[in-house]
Amino acid sequence: MNLYVQQNQPPGVPPLELTGERTLPDVPAENYWYRRHLAVYEWIAGRVASAAVLDMACGEGYGSSVLARSAASVVGVDGNPEAHEHARLKYSRPGLSFAWGAVETFGSPGTFDAVVFLQTIEHVVDPVAVLEHFRSLLTPGGVAYVSTPNVLTLAPQGAAKSDNPWHLREYRAGEFASLCAGVFDRVEMLGLFHARKLRAHEVALRLGWDRVHKRLGITTAFYDRFTLAISSSDFALRPDGLDRALDFLAVCRG
């Protein structure tokens, strides 16, 4: 089986192929990135209990399903017909639905308590217009959760962006905060960082682990096991040290 196609999908659910445009569960080689995204969805899920939630650019649908564990209702929206059909067929729980649509136009004003837009604003042509649209969709007191990778830790040192062809622009912490603050009255910035075993791995690398596993000839065996063992609890959100963060999460109000 192709290493970059989803494995073991439910009967009748067509697997999706990993293209780099979105992350996927059920692809062993992709587990690090999937868990990195899942950690943020789980954090948000703890803050949208009983809310009407819009998960915009929901991709494969796993995040919408996580949000629906606590939210009153979740609509997962994606513009890719294959991803939409996959999500619709794979994920079913009370209050969860999926729709095909564009991030710039989907929805009616004042209909959602929360809008979730993770790891996608770097893909859009006019991010200000998208954020303004999200603000219009919120009920009074509603919150938009918007995440994006940190260019300082994603791209090669000194580069304006990574080599991901789907990303139109990648942001530093101050740039992303300014973008969101230009539309919303209050913006809280958080950074996503390695924790637990991933933090231990960072320390091991600084102590020379790369030389050791190569000399012992265990690189592939070790990292095949290590990658699959990564969980969402191996990441943590916090407000300090944003220049070193993997991703930023802007919590936007007003």
Can you walk through the features of this model?
- The protein is an alpha/beta fold.
- It has a single domain (28-194, 237-253), classed as Rossmann fold.
- Helix content is 33%, strand content 21%.
- The protein has nine helices and eight strands.
- It has helices at 31-45, 62-67, 81-90, 127-137, 151-154, 173-181, 196-206, 209-216, 219-229, and strands at residues 52-56, 73-78, 96-100, 112-117, 138-149, 186-194, 235-238, 247-253.
- An eight-stranded mixed sheet has the order 3-2-1-4-5-8-6-7, sandwiched between helices.
- The termini are far apart.
- The relative contact order is 0.14.
Shape: globular
Just give the CATH class.
Alpha Beta
- Give the H and E element order: HEHEHEEHEHHEHHHEE
Largest sheet: 8 strands, mixed
- Which structural class is indicated by helix and strand composition? alpha/beta
Head-to-tail CA distance between termini: 48 Å
Using the coordinates shown, work out and report the CATH topology.
Answer: Rossmann fold
CATH architecture designation? 3-Layer(aba) Sandwich
Overall number of domains: 1
CATH H-level homologous superfamily name? Vaccinia Virus protein VP39
Strand order of the biggest β-sheet = 3-2-1-4-5-8-6-7
Give the total of beta strands. 8
Rg to the nearest angstrom? 18 Å
Percent in strands: 15-25%
Instruction: Provide the residue-averaged pLDDT.
Output: 96
